[in-house]
Design a protein that fits this description.
- The structure is a homodimer.
- Chain A is an alpha/beta fold.
- In chain A, about 45% of the residues lie in helices and about 20% in strands.
- Chain A contains 8 helices and 10 strands.
- In chain A, the strands form 2 sheets. In chain A, strands 6-7-5-4-8-9-10 form a 7-stranded mixed beta sheet, sandwiched between helices. Chain A has a 3-stranded antiparallel beta sheet with strand order 1-3-2.
- In chain A, strand 6 and strand 7 form a beta hairpin.
- In chain A, helix 1 crosses helix 4.
- The interface between A and B is large, with 54 and 54 residues.
């Protein structure tokens, strides 16, 4: 079994996919599953699945397969979903609104604790029970009400400045939807989501 | 130069990233760039960049680098962005609303031509100048007003049914935001976006 810090980015990226499939199976009352059955559901090869799970010491038994509940719990633990993360959403456009709403019912692990926007017509309104605050108060507020993760859904030109403030306030992870690759110090993780890359790739495959 | 159909998925996935960087450079008046300068902006190694561009026959000149305008146009052509794609958005939740709005100002290549929802309070309203139609009329309408790409932002339980209708109406690509891997025939491309996988991966990296 490798040390958990040696696991490759590619494996980590696949874990949420496994988790989603396993939670579906669990909801349908499935108690155990083989790597080849999981392969049919998830689209990775059975060998890839076994190899991925071996990184964490296996969990499977020859001839039995994997215990769905146990595997679900293990993956949640590895991902660090067995604790709560406080989230701050900066920017209340459509994406910000969607993320704020989605986070709160998707997982107990992620709780939106503050929301900021620069638009005075939005400041003071409530999203998922959280009052939207004026973005100019962000630095001051977050220093006394720290969060783990900052979600950036502001326009491109404002994104790096927002990221700098979040970093100064001690966030450990940034989930960025602005179409820019943020510069952050090495102790902070920035996950840059480029939604429209997916649409452009679709265009490619439609043409070839 | 490889045949364009031999290009790997990984390379295709990087093209929108290159395009974004090049369009930024263009907007800042930069006319030419070396692979090592591009590497600093984009985060891939210079060797990776040269290797990727070699798939398309190079474009670069030793000692000169790449012509930004020319490279931008080449990548747009490869991705198939030099034509228009009609889009149908199914589901007007926050994500649907965000996608409909974003598509229309992001790229001339993607035009939202129809929008459907099941909620009678939303049907009849307008988004980006397009009237939201009742989802029960989708099959009938799309057969006479075909689209290239269907965007699915409905709840998970409704997603496969929507996909089946879109396929029946001849869409070539599906951009799916419902948390389910859609089953589609081999002549249709489904790009399943699992937004919250990114948040879960962030949780992992914050803990390790």
């Amino acid at each position: 079994m490798k040390g958990i810090n040696d696991i490759s980015v590619a494996v980590i990226r696949r874990l949420p996919h496994y988790l989603r499939a396993l939670e579906d199976l669990s909801a349908r009352g499935v108690e155990r599953i083989s790597s080849s059955e999981l392969s049919e559901i998830i689209g990775y090869t059975a060998s890839q699945i076994r190899q991925d799970f071996n990184h964490f010491g296996g969990f499977g038994l020859q001839g039995y397969g994997y215990n769905v509940t146990h595997l679900t719990m293990e993956i949640r633990t590895i991902l660090g979903l067995n604790r709560e993360y406080k989230i701050c959403v900066v920017g209340c456009g459509h994406i910000g609104y969607a993320v704020a709403n989605f986070s709160n019912f998707y997982e107990d692990s992620f709780v939106v604790s503050s929301i900021f926007d620069a638009d005075p017509t939005i400041v003071g309104t409530e999203i998922v029970g959280v009052k939207v605050q004026d973005a100019t108060h962000m630095l001051e507020y977050l220093k006394t009400h720290p969060v783990d993760i900052g979600v950036i859904t502001v326009p491109k030109d404002a994104a790096q400045n927002v990221a700098d403030i979040l970093v100064e306030c001690g966030v450990k992870g940034i989930w960025n939807f602005a179409p820019i690759n943020l510069q952050v110090p090495p102790n902070v993780i920035a996950n840059n989501v480029h939604l429209f890359d997916g649409l452009q790739s679709l265009a490619y495959y439609i043409n070839h």
